[in-house]
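2024-03-11 09:14:02 DEBUG pipeline.ingest accepted 1 chain
2024-03-11 09:14:02 DEBUG pipeline.ingest length=425
2024-03-11 09:14:03 DEBUG pipeline.predict start
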Amino acid sequence: MNIGIVIGRIGDVDGVGLETEKWIHVLERMGHEVFVLSGTFKGTVVPPERRTWLPLLSFFSPECEWEQNRAFFFPPDDPEELLLLIHDHAHRVATEIFAWVLRNRIDVILSENASALPCHLSMGLGIKKAVEHMGIPVVSHDHDFAWERGDRYASPFQEIRSMVEDSFPLRPSDQVHHAVINSPARDELRSRYGIEAVVVPNVMDFEEPFAVGDEYNGDLVTELGLEANDIPLFQVTRIVARKGIETAIDLVARLEDKRVKLVVTGSAADDERKGYFKQLVERVSENGLRGRVHFAYRRILSHRAQTPEGRKIYSLSDAYANATACTYFSSYEGFGNAFVEAVLARRPVFVNNYQPVYWPDIGSLGFRTVQLEDNVLTDEAVAQIDEILHDPALQREIAEHNFGIGRDHFSYEVLERKLAELFAF
């Protein structure tokens, strides 16, 4: 089949984009041809001839930012102009999708979170309009939902509230199959809407080398400002409040060995007004940790590249190759790509029992971790972490144990079985 993916951005280090690229790998391995319609491309795995750039779909497009601000953050007194423009933008999206489907002879649309989370209203509505008019089969890959985000998608306008309720997620029919990334989401969809969804966990390719040290990444720690004999803890996530990076900073402050350094790889591009990032910088300063906490977002992306000045940009695999262990103290995640990556990289991982999914879908499978509750760094937990960081044999023992469990539950082979079920129309 020709499968067409509609997504806001791809090729970045966000969970939706990373997981989409894995789906592309497996779908092509299954014999399908994949086309991508996106608002932003950053060196994705899809060849140029199968990429279509539609700037309107970007989360940072003027249209999307204007809609979000007036629908949720800075509402006007009267919603009339807002509603007119949302529907106008959605019509443009639907028209572009229609032409794209015809041009590429697409058999099935894969909507990547665009029909689940209302972070881009006109994109979700545009997909809905296009699907209704074309009658084309759709797989809706639902990573997040509005009700999981507290008041983030609360609007004073009944029309916007109805729009979110009626269109996110895309309603079921014989032509719409839903995939969710955890069992709580599956249960909630069934309870709220009578939607039967397939749970597809985030996966990694356990058959390919990952986090292997080589000549390219051998200088990563020194390039980031660390010493060669340091003990690097890596936080391989974006900088957003739910990632609990402050707990990782507090952990470094509790550890007496000054060689233990924290490297935060992701950017603060999704941190609204950079408030959380500023809090982290202040926390580093207050704890006297300058030189022990490094923000490396300019030098680590999903794939190797070069800066405009010709300096190396390292991949996520390069980052893990240089980690002694990983921190993942999130308070909330839909699944948790960074956890599975650490397992694949054969690195110990220190984790918070994040809601709603860590224990029921991941932790209960038997992984060996240092697990916090509510991000409380107990003396016992800090002592366990300290022991692991200074015992290479224990690191290897934990890593091999976790790798075997990860391969059984979160591999490409598991994904292939799930995709065969989802794309059977």
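2024-03-11 09:14:41 DEBUG pipeline.report The chain has a mean pLDDT of 95.
2024-03-11 09:14:41 DEBUG pipeline.predict end
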